[in-house]
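Recall that a protein's primary structure is simply its ordered list of amino acids. Everything else, from secondary elements to tertiary packing, is in principle encoded there. The following example makes that idea concrete.
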Amino acid sequence: MSLIKLLLLLSLGGMAYQYWQKGGIEFLSGTVYVSETGFVEIPKPANFNVNTVIVIAAKNCTKEAARRADKLVDELAQRGIPHKRAHRASFESFNPSLKRRLDSVMKGTLPIVLINSKGKSNPTLTDVLAEYHSIYE
């Protein structure tokens, strides 16, 4: 009987280890991957100034998504926040474990907003300003 319990325990431990290796239990590492405003830690975008808010909406996105992106860019400009409107982004080399988080952000509702090494899909202006100020002030 105790041999069966041991084998069961070892198999459960093996499954948990495999799940953790694939990024399923990131919270166990003790690192915070999501900020209070909902921005997710992702790789830093390449070819953009680090202190710039990047607002991404694809060229062929819906008119509504383009309007949201343009409105956000206008509001950032009015507040003097450095920003860049982009249609796409590439990222510096990164650990493959970040791919799941990057995909969750980049496949979300447009616009996608990147601030340093954090991103969020379709954030409010309040979220963007709070995240920006928490990093740069």
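Confidence is low (pLDDT under 50) at residues 20-30. The radius of gyration is 19 Å.
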